[in-house]
Each structure stands twice: as structure tokens, then as C-alpha cells.
Amino acid sequence: MTATTEAPQRFVGNGVPRKEDPELITGEAVYVDDLKLPGMAHMVVVRSTVAHARIAGVDTAAAAAMPGVVAVWSGRDLAGDWSAGLPTAWPVPSVHWGKAEPTAEPRVGDHKPVAVDKARFAGDPVAVVVAATREQAVDAAEAVVVDYEELPVVTGVEQALAGGAPLVHEALGTNELYTWRHSNGEDAEQLIASAPVVVRERYLQPRLVPNAIEPRAVLVQPSPYQGEYTLWTTTQVPHFVRLFMAVVCGLSEPKIRVIAPTVGGGFGSKLNVYAEEAIALTAARRLGRPVKWVEERSEAYQSTIQGRGQIQEIELAATQEGELLAVRARIRADMGAYAQLVAPGIPLLGAFIYHGQYQARAYDFWCTAAYTNLPPTDAYRGAGRPEATYAIERAMDTLARRLGKDPAELRRMNMMPPFTEATPAAGGLNFDSGNYPALLDRAMEILGYEDVRAEQAERRRRGDSRLLGVGISTYIEMCGLAPSQVLSALNYAGGGWEQSVVRCLPTGKVEVVSGTSPHGQGHVTTWAQIVADELGVGYEDVEVFHGDTASSPMGLDTYGSRSLSVGGTALYLACRKVRDKAAKVAAHELEVAEEDLEWVEGRFQVRGAPDRARAIPELAASAWSAHDLPAGLEPVLDGEATWDPVNFTFPAGAHLCTVEVDTETGQVFVRRYVAVDDCGTIINPVIVQGQLHGGICQGIAEAQFEEAVFDENGVLLTGSMATYRVPAASEMPSFELEHLVTRSSTNPLGVKGIGEAGTIAAPAAVVNGVLDALAPLGVTHIEKPVNPERVWRAIQAARSAGGDRPTGEGSVQ
Ligand code: MCN
Fold first, then answer.
1. Is the pLDDT of residue 184 over 60?
2. From ligand 1's centre to the CA of 447, what distance in Å?
3. Closest Cα partner for 334 from 371, 373, 301?
């Protein structure tokens, strides 16, 4: 083995400018809608206008006769094209996990890309039009006549689970997809029954609309003679799309090439395999010409998955001093009309961390998932973990109020003590590393917690109509998805590994192929930073390729803040393989034993003779010409690694904000937002900061503005940006960000994820801040989003109830 004296990190840890930005900010980047192919036709999907109906007939004749129309198909016309329905890769059974055998297999309803007999949500595809131009396709789509026999509609998860509810999938005989339970073996029931203090809370997690800047789009080019298909699609998961297009359309997987060109954001919504991808593929196959589909923004509100959609009940049992004894959570999750790709598993991503950063003797989690006649839900930034964080952090504030304790103090006294190696937590998982008290202490210090509390008291005393509140949210995140064996135990169909390939070319350039692909996260930059340091090559000499299954056939893609901790680790290991091979070439050329070499400042040098050295680019040229290699060594300097993580990573943080609430209008103003996060070793602090900025904005918007509202017929009332409030930059405060680093014990880089952290922490921070501000009025509960109307109504209700009520609407006890 070569002795390794680690080179000082030249790039890792530095905020080098992002390699990908010039083309993005000069408009040079190519998105799917920019692509035009000769002979390309345009596809429009006709969608159900009602949420639940039998399809008595689809009359396509008038549409087919319109100018430019190439084809019009109903769901029945296309039914024979599908070898399988759209996939559910995470079919969760009904089970007390690890404690008993399943009581029911997963109940997954059939999901044809185009509905045949029944439409199950307003937006469900019912017919397809292909025409020479997009305008012609849009016009013809309006001429398709669908005969709906309307059925009773289920719009809420509790309604769906009640006896006698209309069934979304009759064949299943129930709307319940599963009831999944996880407990740590301690008797939560008994502890809750006998505890001196118990809080019971109920919270709603409204559905959210992802709203990526680039709506979805797909273009399929068939090569009829080779039976090959190329799909350009706006996806986070090109490898999943290739696999499932083969399954759904009955094609040979190697004959499908999926390219995710520049992708303009996803936030989880592009972690899916969508009907339109399969429909465009089958249309291109039938017609033998390229077919393109581009989603309208208004269509995205109906037909792209939505996030959240849960009802939560949480109970905390504690001693009079505030020591947590038990955490019990009961969740009802709205799956919408179909079980989308990973939707059933989303609540499970939170199922192990409803206790947050705190110790508790007993832990008990239940989730029941149900079908409704609303658009399908699935992964949306944070996926399961913002919900868990919101529930525990809201409930901790309620507990603090009940005990008359400072909420920060209550949190600190219950936190797990600092640890650097994998350590069991109350929910049964081993957290990788953490120092939670230090995160909270530092955040309080930055905020000037005592001073803010003093100002708050003073403003209350003088009867300020703008009340000041302090919001606290600490969080633990389970990400870096994931050890394949754990995924298997959770009934997930796939693995959690990631692959990377590093090739050192004779020109000195390094070609990196990544299984994960970014849609805004800056992998090209951070991957180049890692390679430049690991191989001692120039940052500008590293070229990173991703998002094309032809160049990167193996990968499991981007979601769950996994890319760095899983894909980055695969990359690091591939670099180490390159270095091991390079050492053999260097030893051969320098005529020394490998043991006599050391890796110093990015090159191999003979121990004690630093002028006798070889750098990677020189060795790459030798390995490529292969004129004089050690016996038995294969030519070419390259390395490939596939990493299956040994554990999740568990980033953590403390987010504190101050809010002002105008008690006359109900308006909420977030004044300061302080975040101290621990994402382990940081590769690029500027990118990490950007990830936090975006994530916190989304979390603040979730707290204050965003909510998909449906009427009793399942029709979306907030179907555009005029009615669905997305945040504006002007509505955000400046963020005060700091980091503490505890190296992850899960991977050799010591990294943890950061892509979702802000979204996980922020909603509870803001809502807790609002309730803290309104505490003197007796308001203890307002549902998200805490918009002016809700806040104003809560203030009026509290005032007419005489103020100083001990509990609010949401508190059961
Ligand atoms: N990073 C780092 N040091 C760390 C952690 C991360 O430098 N300790 C860098 C990484 O190298 C990478 C970026 O930060 O460049 C994010 O890394 P990671 O946390 O591994 O997350 P992923 O790359 O897997 O991205 C997924 C995550 C998710 S799940 C959602 S949702 C999300 C997000 O990232 N959606 C986004 N960030 C987004 N950012 C943009 N612009 N758009 C989206 O849709």
C-alpha cells in the first residue's frame, strides 16, 4: 500500500463559483421544450373535468377531422399498448413493522396512463390528441367529447376511511392502502396513561403544489428500424424512467435511452414516472415520428404530483419537570387517486423521527394511507420529514407552555447528548453523529435570545398592536437514501446504491460519469471539487457527465438529499481506485516499490526524494499509451465504484426566527431568520448556502402562504399563481446562516445532505413564532398556512373567548 499523506484540500470547503452557471444565466442551457426534431408532432392530453366518473364514451370523431390532427385516442384505444400500469415502487403493506407478520398486502389500484372506464380525479388523462402543431392539438383537444357518468366524490382522507365512503378503486374493496405501525417496544400506551403531563395535538398538513420553474415536458424520438427510443424528459430520475418505460410499454430496457437535459427544478415532483412519458412513447411508437408534450402551468397544478396532504395527531407524555417519556404519532395520509411511484413510502420517511432530536422512552408511530379523488400526492421537498418535524416541534412548544417552561430550555433538557459514532435514537435508528445542544446554543447566541425575549416582554407591556414572537424549530433529518437492505425491509422495490466512473484521459482531462443528476443543486461543481482534490488535477480539467442513460447506464438518481452522501461517496471511491492504479504505474516508472511512494500535495513522490514524482495527468498518458506498464496491469487510468451506504445520514439544525404579528390585520412578518445547521463536511459552502436559502423560502411559504384548496366536488380552487400564493423574494427576510460540523460516521467524506434541510425546519419555526407572539391573547393553535385571515380569525376567537385560554382549537387536551 502507498503511504498517504493527505494533501491539503484545495477545492473541497471552498465556495468556488458554479461551473454550470454561465450557460444557465446566459440562456444557453437546453431544456426539453427547446428541442425540435424533423417531423416532430405535438401531443396534448385531454383531462377529466370531474373528480370521479364512469367514462361512458369518448367521441373523437370531430377532433380527428380538425386541421393538422394526426391521431386522437381514447383510453380504450390505447389500453392494449400497456404491458403494465404506471408503477408503484414502494407498495407498503399493513404491518406492525418488525413485530408481526403483515395483516394485509399492499393495496395498489390499477393505474393506466390513460383512464379507460373511470376517471378518478379532475386532471386524470382520458384521451390524447397528436397534431402537426401544438396549437392544432390544443384546438382539437377541445373538440373531444367525453361522456361522464358522475360518481360521488371523496375529497378527504378521513372521509375516505369512514364506512360507506365511495370507493376510488372498487377492485380493492376499500380506500385504505395500508396501516403501518412502528414502535420501539416500550409501552407508550401505559406511559401516556400514567404520565403527569400529556399534550395531545392535531395538525393538518395541507396539500402543496410543487411549482418548479420549468413545467414538465417530454420528447420521444423513435428509431423504428432499430426498435430504439430516445426520451428527453424533465426528470430527476432518468434511470427510473428508462426502467419503467420498458415495463409499462413492454420494450427492451437497453433499447430505451433517457436524457434529462437541463432540468429547471423539481423539488421532488420530478421524482416520478408520469403518464405523459408513457403516452408520448406509445404515440411515437404508433406514429413512427417524434412526439413532444409540454405541460401548461395550469395543467401542472392538476397533473403533477402534489406534496404533503396529511392529518397528524401527536401525543407527548412528560414528567412535571419536562422530561419526555413517550411520543406517539398517528397519521392519516392522503395518497390521492393513485399510488404514485414512491407515495406510499413517504410517511415512512418521517416514521422514525417524530421524536426529533429528543430522547424519549417510548415511541409509537401509526400511519394509515388512503385513496381520495384528488390528484396523487408523492415526494415533495423534505417528504415525510417536514411533517414529522412540524408535529414534534409544535407539540414541544405546547408542552413548554403547559409546563410554564422556556421552549428552548425544554428542548435542550431533552436533547440527545453529543455523539460522534452511530448512536441509537428513540425511534430505533442509529443516528450517525450530532451535537444538538451546540446547534441550539449557537442559534440562540446569534439571535440574541435573551434580548429578544426582553423586547418581547416590553412590547407586550406597552400594548404594542404588533406583537413580537420567537419561533424555534430544531430538526433531525433522515436522508442519504439509502442502505439497500433497509429499503428492502421497508418494502421498497429498488436499492439505494449509487455509481460513479472516473476516466483520466491522455490530454490531462478527467471525465466523470455520475449516476445522480442535478436539477439545480450544482453537482457538476461539487463533483469537480472532490475529483480535483482526490486526484491532484485542475478543477477546470474535470468534466462531469450526468442525466443520460447512454453515458451513465447505472444510477439511482437524485432525491432524498442523497447525491453527495451516496453519489459523492461513489465518486470518492472511484477516485481512490484511480489512485491505487496510478500508484502502480508511478512505482513502475520511478523504479521503486509501491510502499516507497507517498501521496503528497496531489502527486506520488518517492519517500525522501521529492523531486522524483509523478502526477496523475502524466500517469494517465502512460496508462493510455500502454507502452510500458507493469506486467498484468490493464491499460487506461480509470476507476468505477458503486457504493451502497451503510446507514442514512442525519443532518440536524436549529432554526430560530422572530416574527411580528399585526393584531389588527392578522399579517405576519418574519423579521429575522437564524439557522445553524450541521450537514457534516461541507464541499461547497456557497452551494450549501444556496440550498438553504431555497429550502427556507419554501418552508416559510409553506408556513405562511401555500395551500391547495379543493371544493367538495374535488375541483381545485387554487389552480393558478393568482390563487395559490408562491413566495416572492421581497417577502423573505435575510437569512443568518452558520454551520457546525460533526463528520458523518456513514461515509468516508463525512458528509450529510443539505438539499431539504431548510424546508424541513422552517414551517415549525414560523408557526411557533406566530403562536408565541399571540400567546398573551390566548391563541394556541392556528393551522398552516398562517395567512392573515386565519390569524385574524384566531385573534377574534380568542378575544371573544376572553383571552388567556389554556389551549387552542388544535389542542385536544
Ligand atoms: N453539498 C455540499 N456539502 C454538503 C452537502 C451538500 O457541498 N455537506 C452540496 C452537494 O454537493 C450538492 C448540493 O449541495 O451540490 C445538494 O446536495 P445533497 O444534499 O446531496 O442533495 P441532492 O443533490 O441529492 O439534491 C436533492 C435535494 C432534494 S431531495 C430536493 S427536493 C431539492 C434539493 O435537493 N430540490 C431542488 N435542492 C434543490 N435545489 C434546486 N435548485 N432545485 C430543486 O428542485
1. yes
2. 26
3. 371
